[in-house]
Amino acid sequence: MTDSPYHHGHLRTALLERAESVLAQSGADGLSLRALARDLGVSHAAPARHFRDRQALLDALAVSGFTRLNAALRGAAAAPGPPSARLTALGRAYVEFAVTHPPLLALMFTAKHAEDSSAELRELGHAGLGVAAGLIAEAQAAGTARPGDPARLAQVAFSTLHGLATLSLGGLLDDTPLDEALDLALEVLLAGIAPAS
Predict the structure, then answer these.
(1) pLDDT tens across 33-82, in order?
(2) pTM of the model
(3) Smaller CB count within 10 Å for the chain: N or C?
(4) Which residue numbers delimit the HTH tetR-type domain (predicted)?
(5) Do the Cβ atoms of 104 and 23 come closer than 8 Å?
(6) How many C-alpha atoms does 24 have within 13 Å on its Cβ side?
(7) What architecture (CATH level 2) is domain 1-51?
(8) In terms of CATH architecture, what is 53-193?
């Protein structure tokens, strides 16, 4: 076994970091607690102190992913400027996360929609949409967004941005650079959210 800080209270963090790396390289099927223990130089039994089984590890990865994504979205929403500028920043933050962590994002949504998903996971999974809906409601109060259910408007915006990220990852934007496509998508979204003239 290697000398490492994992024996001093950091094993859970190390397991999650290594698991995310394996997830990115090999997908969820490549993850096992035994292999992670071997990679980190700890006993095969050590991960069981933190994760009862592989599914618990996957759920913890999803929680970690949503926590990081939501922090990025809240940071964008809290930036100075009008709601439209913050919505643009929020959209960019989502797409950046999606294209930087595609296997993690896929795991996050799969775990969130699982029949036995935890309340924590479901709450974290909906929090980002709540941030966007809050910004839209703020824009509505300022008269710079159309009337309507802010959560529904946020859901449509999310669908557009998630779809754009998915197309980019699949190489389906042809010759259009992602930045250019994202600029246009955000412009169209903001125009759609704006009140009718």
Answers:
(1) 999 999 999 998 999 899 999 999 999 999 999 999 999 999 999 999 99
(2) 0.89
(3) C
(4) 9-69
(5) yes
(6) 12
(7) Orthogonal Bundle (1.10)
(8) Orthogonal Bundle (1.10)
The ranges of the chain annotated as CATH 1.10.357.10 are 53-193
CA neighbours within 13 Å on the CB side: how many for 70? 18
pLDDT in tens, 142-187: 999 999 999 999 999 999 999 999 999 999 999 999 999 999 999 9
Cβ atoms of 18 and 36 within 8 Å: the answer is: yes
- 36 vs 22: CA distance, rounded Å: 9
- Look up residue 158 and give its two tokens: 């999310």
Both tokens assigned to 21? 């790396």
Which stretches of 47-177 are DSSP H helices?
54-77, 83-100, 102-112, 119-141, 150-169
